[in-house]
Amino acid sequence: MHGPYWYWVIIVSLIPFVLERVMPWRPDQETVRPQLSQDIFWFLFNGFAAAFIFKGLYGWTGFHLDRFYLSVTGYTPQTLGMVRDLPFVAQVLIYLLCADFLDWCIHNLLHRVSALWLFHRVHHTIHIMDWIGNYRVHWVETIVYNVLKYLPLALFGADGKVILTVAIISNLFGNLNHANINFSRGPLRYVFNSPCMHIWHHDRKPPVPAGYNFGIVFSMWDWIFDTAYFPLGEVPESLGFSNDRMYPKNLVFRFFTPFLKTPRDRTA
C-alpha cells in the first residue's frame, strides 16, 4: 500500500458511493437527505482533520504507555515484535484479526458503559443509513478506540505498511456496512460483516438493551459470543435509539457537549 492515508480515505469512500448509485438496496432513499451536510462535516473531520489535530495527543499517550510497560516488564512493547519477521500477508491477517477483535470489545463497552454511551449515541442518531454515516462518530469515541488499542497492538511490532493496510480494510468495511446496498455475503455472513447485518445494529428498539452486531470487519465475534442478530430479508422498522427524537440535532451540541443532559433528556 502506497500513498498517504487521506488518499485511501477517498478511495474507500468512492467505492460504496458508486455501489449505492449502481445497486441501491432502498431505491427510494434520498441521496440529498436530512443532516447530509452534518455528515459531510463528520466525514471531513474524522476522515482527514482528526489525525492531524490529535497527533500530539496520540504521541503523548503512546509515549507514556510505553514508559509504563517498560517500568513493569523491563522493555518496550515494540521490542517483542510478535509478527515482525512474518511475511507481509501473514502480518496483515494476524494484525487485522486482533485489531478487529479489540474493536468489537470496545464497541461493546461503548454500549454498556453509560459514560461512553453519551458519546457513542451521536453515531446512533442516524435515521437514514448510507455510507457517509460511518463517519458520524464523536471525536472522544475515536480517542477511546486509539488509546485502548495502542498497547496491545504495539506488542506486534507490525510494519507501518501493515498498520496502514489494516486501517484501510477496516475503513472500507465500515463504509460498506453503512452503505445502502443489498449485500449479505451469503454463507460468509458468519465470518464477515455486511450492510444487511449491520443495519440491525442501528435498530431503534433492539430486543436486548445493549444491542447486538458489534463487529466491524468480522461478524464471527458476534456469532461466537452470542451478540449476533441477522433475520435475512428483513429490515428494522426504524433506526436510532430510544428517545432520540428528543435528542438535539444541533451540530455544535453534538460535537462539543453530547455528555450534557438537556431539558429534553430530563423530560424523557
List keywords for this structure.
about 270 residues; mainly alpha
Protein described:
The chain is mostly helical. The protein has one domain (30-267). Helices cover 54% and strands 0% of the residues. The chain has twelve helices and no strands. Helix 5 (88-112) crosses helix 6 (114-120). 30% of the residues are buried. The model has no long low-confidence stretch (mean pLDDT 93).
> How many domains would you count in the coordinates?
1
Unreliable runs: none
Q: Major sheet: size, sense and barrel closure? A: none
User: Could you estimate the helical fraction of the residues in percent?
Assistant: 40-55%
Structural class: mainly alpha
* Total DSSP helices: 12
**In total, how many beta strands?**
0
* Overall mean confidence score, pLDDT: 93
Strand residues, percent: under 5%
Shape label: globular
First CA to last CA: what distance? 49 Å
Order of helices and strands: HHHHHHHHHHHH
Rg (C-alpha, Å): 19 Å
Brief write-up:
The chain is mainly alpha-helical and 268 residues long.
Outline the fold blueprint.
Blueprint: H1 5-22, H2 36-53, H3 55-73, H4 77-80, H5 88-112, H6 114-120, H7 139-154, H8 160-178, H9 195-198, H10 220-224, H11 251-256, H12 263-267
Helix pairs in contact: 1-8, 3-7, 5-6, 5-7, 5-8
